[in-house]
Amino acid sequence: MLLAAMTYSARKSTYETTQILILGFNGNLRSWWHNLLTEQDKQRILIATRTVVKTENSSTPIQAEEPDMVNQLLYTMTKHFIGSTQIHLNLATEALLGLKCHKMSRYKWYKDTFMARLYTLTTCGADVWKQKFVEGLPHYISKKFYQTMTTNSVNQQIDWANLTYGDISSTVQMICVSLCT
């Protein structure tokens, strides 16, 4: 639905985009729009605006109202059909904590799955997730990773804050190549 909204909004006004989306409702969405929502709820969606601050050719910011019907429609649908997204975030955290890579033949799957789940969390930038990524690798590989990183560091400690997932991945791949040759 979001993709359709973005496509329509490229050539149509926000109001027209909202109307097109509503006309395309079928099944549960159609019943929800026609039977569950009151006229007041529908009007609230169809007249939604947001305040934006614009600076045009001057340093003085100007507040302006912009139509926000599409976002209001999508938000209302999400709240009605999905509810609170907090439970999904908690499940993503639990799934991430239990994720392991038992064989290096599954490393690409592990890395892709870990990253996909990680980016759903609000704490995705925390260093603890980098450590968790390494700890989810097979024991021998994670042990070699820690040895390699502490050997290459000045103070024999890993600086997780300056280490990226790309650095971690390339180090793991280097370790695997050195084990194979």
TrEMBL record:
InterPro entries registered for this protein in UniProt: DUF7746
Occurrences of domain DUF7746 (ranges): 1-53
Entries under Pfam families matching the protein: DUF7746
Name under which the protein is recorded: DUF7746 domain-containing protein
Highest classification ranks of the organism: Eukaryota, Viridiplantae, Streptophyta, Embryophyta, Tracheophyta
